[in-house]
Each structure stands twice: as C-alpha cells, then as structure tokens.
Prior knowledge:
By secondary structure, the protein is of the alpha/beta class. It has three helices and nine strands, in the order βαβαβββαββββ. Helices cover 21% and strands 31% of the residues. It starts with 6 loop residues before the first strand and ends with a strand. Residues 41, 44-45, 99-100 line the site of magnesium ion (MG).
Amino acid sequence: MLDEKNFTKYLSRHEIEAAVQAIATQINLDYKGKEIILIGVLKGAILFMADLMRSIECPTEVEFVRLSSYGKARTSSGTVTLLKDIQADIYNKHVLIVEEIIDSGRTLKFLYERLKAAGPASIEIVTLLDKASKRIVDVPVKYIGKTIDDQFLVGYGLDLEEHSRNLADIYYLKYPN
Ligand code: IMP
Ligand code: MG
C-alpha cells in the first residue's frame, strides 16, 4: 500500500509518457531505414521498455539482460554481476541499451563494455532518468528522458527493496530510511 506521507509524486504518468515519446521520436529519426535491437535491463526497465518499443517504427528485436549491483541496498555496491545474458547475436547490429535510471554509471559501464566487445555496428544508451550529478564512472548516454536530482525514486519499474515497481507514476521518498 502507498504510504502517502512518505511517497510524494515526482513525475506523473503523463509526464513520463511525454518523455518516452520524445525519446522515441528522436530514435525514429536517427535510425530511419535501420533495424535495431533493444536490450532492456531487468527488472527496472520493463515498463519503460514496453512503452518505448511500442513507439518505435523501425524493425526491432527485443532482448533483456539482468545485472546485479544493488541487491537490496540503496546505494551502488560497485560490483556488477551478469545474472542473465542476451540470446541474440549482436554482431554488426544496431544496439540500443534501455535503462530506466542511471546513478553511478557502474551498471551501464559494465554492460556497455561487454556488449561492445561482441562487435555491434553501433551501440547507444537510452535512459528515462539520469542522476547526472551522481556519476562515478563515465558512460556515453545518447538519449535521456529527464536529468534529475539525487533523490531515491520508486514506481514505473523503479523499486524500493523489490516493491512499488508497478506504480504508474514515479514518486520520491521523503524519508528514504
Ligand atoms: P548505477 O550502477 O549506480 O548507475 O545504478 C543503476 C541502477 O540502480 C538502476 O538500474 C536502478 O536499478 C538502480 N537505481 C538507481 N537509482 C535508483 C532509484 O532512485 N530508485 C530505484 N532504483 C535505483
Ligand atoms: Mg535498472
């Protein structure tokens, strides 16, 4: 149940939709005439992936990876492990990594380097939210829905200890601890 004293709405479903559409429009322009492979990062990116892929007009394949870096903690542990790999061969393909939020950049740096080693024709990163001020390692992020302050957010795929991913809007926690 939503603890309304602690959960404050940060982005409404309409604002999220507008951000997703803006990204899709740009991707449709940039990849016109090309085929792409979207690689979503489980579990957080599921809703963003579902909405984004519906607005992409190019021929598209969809893959998922699962990485662990946070576990149940709320700050990045610094160690990233691959729990589930992609099935597709991405050699010579146009790859777009789909993430819902970037914090330190560690998770994406690990994934980006790993996928790049498989020889894609191109590889770019798409994120709905970017906590740019929290970046510890540099990652090239091409498409950003919204740059945000350092706040702990839940909803629209984002979780607090595995809860609240199902919320259609995004909330911040007034008292995260
Ligand atoms: P990074 O490796 O530090 O960039 O962490 C990225 C991952 O941490 C994201 O894919 C999310 O799963 C998780 N994460 C970062 N910030 C938040 C947040 O505010 N709420 C929920 N999960 C977050
Ligand atoms: Mg994630």
